[in-house]
Amino acid sequence: MVADIAKLSVGREDYYVREVADNREEYLSGHGESPGRWLGRGAAALGQHDVANTMAFVRMFHGRHPETGELLGRPHGEHGVPAFDVVLRPTKSVSLLYGLGDAKVAAQVLDAHHQATEPALSYLEEHVGARRGHGG
User: Which candidate, 11, 37, 33, 12, places its Cα nearest to that of 24?
Assistant: First the structure.
């Protein structure tokens, strides 16, 4: 598994929600990304699981509860970093199996990938941290 990590910038949430593929063919042809999924302790604490819907994602991007819209902590500043985008993707050989396999094989590959992301995220939650404020 490969991890790509990038800062999310305030005001860039449109990029993430407009680029979601509606189906496997769009994704494989390069016309969109797979939908995001809620994973980890933070998502669980907020009652979120499975695929992230657009409105809930946008609310979280703005530091708000995904369901109620209630502000969680203080608002992000103009140049704030509300979160980090962590993409856990399979190696090319696994991607090829997904793309070239029939629907049954693709479903099995996707399920195996989803099962692999959970322990990877657990590792990140256990070993990676962030600070806020001066020097953070």
Answer: 33
d(CA 78, CA 130): 19
On whether the CB atoms of residues 80 and 88 are closer than 8 A, the answer is no
Q: Which residue has the tokens 């990877």?
A: 120
For tokens 């390069």, the residue is: 30
Q: For residue 59, give every residue at least 6 positions away whose Cβ sits within 8 Å of its Cβ, in sequence order, or none.
A: 65, 66, 67, 69
Which of 3-7, 18-22, 113-117, 126-130 comes out lowest in average pLDDT? 18-22
- Domain segments of the chain as ranges: 2-127
Residue 121, CB-side half-sphere exposure with 13 Å CA sphere: 20
The pTM is what?
A: 0.65
